[in-house]
Amino acid sequence: MPTTTQSQNAPTTRRRLSIGAIIAIILLFLIVLAGLAILIAWLTIRPKRLVYSIENASIRNYNLTNGHLKSDFMFTIRAYNPNSRVSIYYDKIEAKAYYDEEMIGFNSIQPFYQRTRNVTHMGLNLSAKDVALSEVATRDLRMERVRGRIDLEIKVKAKVRFKVGKLKSRHRTLRVTCGPVKVPMSMYKNFDNTPCDVDL
Ligand SMILES: *[C@@H]1O[C@H](CO)[C@@H](O)[C@H](O)[C@H]1NC(C)=O
Ligand SMILES: *[C@@H]1O[C@H](CO)[C@@H](O)[C@H](O)[C@H]1NC(C)=O
Ligand SMILES: *[C@@H]1O[C@H](CO)[C@@H](O)[C@H](O)[C@H]1NC(C)=O
Ligand SMILES: *[C@@H]1O[C@H](CO)[C@@H](O)[C@H](O)[C@H]1NC(C)=O
């Protein structure tokens, strides 16, 4: 008798188990497949870091009188998008110049669209319009002027969107910090290309 009950029960248990197992295997397979698809998409699209540098800088109409600075600072920013699948919308770009941590100039840059693997040069005109400097900054600036160059820090903040195929990302804030940018007082001096830190 015990042998017959065993032979009657065993097949049903095995059948029930195998249906559950099949569903579990299918689910697992689908999850693995979805994960693989995401991984492959990420690996092929994977955004590379944007590369920024200051390529040129010059000073015009420099006038430091009684601790007040009036001057035009001209920069050429190089923006490189190394990605072959990701293009970038620069919707809003703001740039600031700092001397001794004091903001001396502010300007915005024309929005633009940057294609894949593109290098774009941006001209930037930052003017100090009668900026009151601290005593320390005034003294430092006089000394640097005699030395022949002024060390500034340039900060760029941009609202960007990324585009992959037809998909566009939401707005993200890109922060670029360049410094020290050694701006020569004389037009005839060479300028050292200055790399920037990029934070996204
Ligand atoms: C840098 O700017 C100065 C002054 O505007 C200009 O004379 C010079 O040709 C520029 N150099 C480069 C490499 O663009
Ligand atoms: C510099 O600015 C001061 C005060 O604004 C002005 O009196 C002076 O004429 C300016 N100097 C030059 C060379 O422009
Ligand atoms: C980058 O894009 C700009 C604007 O679309 C274009 O003027 C420039 O020639 C491009 N540069 C390169 C290196 O592709
Ligand atoms: C830079 O901006 C100042 C004031 O905003 C202006 O006077 C000057 O002509 C500009 N320089 C260039 C080269 O655009």
Automatic annotation (TrEMBL):
The chain crosses the membrane at residues 20-45. GO terms for biological process: defense response to other organism. This is Late embryogenesis abundant protein LEA-2 subgroup domain-containing protein. The keyword Transmembrane helix applies. Residues 76-178 form the Late embryogenesis abundant protein LEA-2 subgroup domain. It comes from Lithospermum erythrorhizon (Purple gromwell). It is found in: Membrane. InterPro entries: LEA_2, NDR1-like. Pfam families: LEA_2 (PF03168). It is a single-pass membrane protein. It comes from the Eukaryota. One of its GO terms (cellular component) is plasma membrane. The keyword Transmembrane applies. Keywords: Membrane, Transmembrane, Transmembrane helix.
